[in-house]
Amino acid sequence: MKNMRNFAVPCLLVFAGIVTAAIPSGAQVASPPANASCKFTDGKTIVVNYSSPRMRGRKIFGELVPFGEVWRTGANDATGFVTTADLVVGGKNVPAGGYTIFTLPAKDKWTLIISKKTGEFGIPYPGEQFDFARMEMKVSELQSPLENFTISFNQTGGNCNMNLDWETTRASVAIAEKK
Questions:
Q1: Model pTM?
Q2: Phi-psi label, residue 33: left if phi above 0, alpha if psi -120 to 50, beta otherwise
Q3: How far apart are CA 53 and CA 74, in angstroms?
């Protein structure tokens, strides 16, 4: 019996190692969590928390993400947008606080939707009654296809321009701290 235990314990450890190695790691999640942030010169910030879906050979804009329909701007939970500064986003005033962002993509223009409703799953869109503001985004073409949906900020002086990049599309909006 003692010999059997001496044999069984190492076998169980080897089996546990094989099973652990077979479980997908976080890097293999279809739409892993991501975030982007921008810090103004006075230390106030914008933080965006989202899930980053992958193209995986699919046609994205116009098919997976239909034109003319509100998109959750990422995957899984709705994309959170938290600012500690009062902002001017695309020309509209947005007070400090927590919001959810959605987008309305079209072939040649996009609309950013800042929603007052927070903490929800990304679909369905909660509706216009929760919209805080809508503003136009500038649309441009990326030089090469981007596999991972990415939100980033380009900081120039006191501005934090937010970029939404995926496939061959960039949608961007100017964000400034309200003075």
A1: 0.83
A2: beta
A3: 6
pLDDT tens, position by position, 85-111 = 999 999 999 999 999 999 999 988 999
Burial bucket for residue 135 (CB in 10 Å: 0-12, 13-18, 19+) = middle
Give the C-alpha separation, 50 to 103, whole Å: 13
Which value, to the nearest 10 degrees, does the dihedral of the CA atoms of residues 39, 77, 130, 111 take? 70
User: Residue 124: is the preceding peptide bond cis (ω within 30°)?
Assistant: yes
